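It is worth pausing here to work through a concrete case rather than discussing structure prediction in the abstract. The textbook approach is simple: state the sequence, then state the predicted structure, then interpret. We follow exactly that order.
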Amino acid sequence: MSESEEKRPYDLEERTFLFAKEVRRFVELLERTIANAEDARQLIRSSGSVAANYIEANEALGKKDFLLHIKICRKEAKENVLWLRLLDTEAQPAAESTQQRLITEAGELMNIFGAIYRKKSGDN
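Step two, the predicted structure:
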């Protein structure tokens, strides 16, 4: 297990919050271009949406509501991967390293929410 994996919280609400916060810090590092500005806006929205929808899932009114919000969490995490990949960090090694770490985290969140959905949708 890497050092960054050891520091990840097991509490998904906290983990998604920290992901959204790290995305916001990352965006501040980016070169100011029209494309980066537009893609960063989308990234900020979708990173916050993962955290917000997980809170909604935890406050769900029933199983269907829970599954809907978990599915949205997965969809938004997947969208984060797209926006992160689109951002131009070629001339910024520190930003590029953070970008790769965030892509990995978004992928892991996507997998976690997919597993939760599969497990809970199989329950009767």
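Step three, interpretation. The chain has one domain: 3-122. Residues 93-122 form the longest helix (30 residues).
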